[in-house]
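Hey everyone, long-time lurker, first post.

I ran two proteins through the pipeline my lab uses and got sequence/structure pairs for each. Pasting them in order. The first:
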Amino acid sequence: MYANNWMTVREDTVRREDGSEGIYGVVDKPTAAIIIPRDGDRLHLVEQFRYPVEQRRWEFPMGTAPDRAEVDPAELAARELAEETGLVAGRMDFLGDLDLAPGTSSQREHVFLATELREGPISREDSEQDMRARWFTVAEFEEMVRRSEVVDAQTLAAYLLLLLRER
């Protein structure tokens, strides 16, 4: 039905349990990585304008490979972290998987905790020109969530995986 460098949209004919036919629209996007950069009690977030909601959003660094390519999730995570923040992780631990929106999208996201961080060069894509990045304490981050200043579902779900790991 539609394709660009980041996604395809398809419409499938489906047969329901009662035997009737219907259609199902699916957004296919490549595997994504979400990275939680952590240095002690600090978390590194990025902020950018999100066109569909017409607002800026604070979130953990995340992304997919260009041209809908499928890339090893750990490699993708390291690349996205460096690209968006300039940070290079000495250690990258897998926390778990997320389905972005399983009712409409096939995209699977892999969540990583990045630690032992050092500064490197930032090399953002053209679409990330307006991106800002900064450190927040865990308390500041959690207060931003309470005040609905961090509302990105992927970021919130990734943070839950981090909290569960620490229990």
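...and the second, right after it:
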Amino acid sequence: MNDRDQSVLNDNVDLSSPLDNLGPIDGTPESAPPPDPEEMLPLLESPVTQERMLAARAFCEIQDHRAIPHLITLLGDRCPLVRVSAAYALGRNPSPEAIEAIIDQLQRDWNGYVRKGLVWSLGNNRDSRSLFPLIDSLRTDIPAVRLWAASALAQMTQVSYEAIISTIPPLIEGLRRDPIPAIRSNCAWSLGQLARELPSNVVYAGAIDGLIEAFVEDEDLGVREDARSALLKVGDPRALQLIEELEQEGWF
């Protein structure tokens, strides 16, 4: 990511959902009926930037396969607000047809908010092609993008056993080395989700060891709590015994 503008998002990691900042469509209250796809579809090709953005945002709320080709095209729009809206819309309207376009835009988009949306979309699409781009984002991107890449990798539970196996090591690496506590916490959560889908093998043991290490050694109390929560949900006997012993000693 040598040519990416690292100033687009600063190190104050945005913990909100990627969709939170989009707000209601066209200022309408959240209780209003969803947008009409028949009205929104033509606007996806509008020459007016504001109309393209509002139409793309509409498909963050509604699902319609007819919008997918247009949303793919809008990933390359000149306006970042249109691109980020299209990215989230493709997360709400998952399609195998969109994966390559999302990955391509993730690898070249200069805007951190857009990349954050693209990572979120890749997670929601639950496709094996997303695995290595998400791992790369977890390892190399700015904090806000790494945060969502860590969470998105938990969706590999819905892809394949092989994807889960490939996801564990970079999440352990992120849990041990990322300087941002919120990202380490997301790595812990994802490791817990993935470990629950594994048999008791060496990869499973590595995930448990990584979570135990974070529970015992991480400097941030929130990360330790999230690692503990992940271990409790996995239900690993060795980890449960350790947690019980430490709690009896008043350590935690």
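Reply from user beta_strand_b:
Welcome! Quick read of the second one: DSSP finds 13 helices and no strands in the chain. The radius of gyration is 20 Å.
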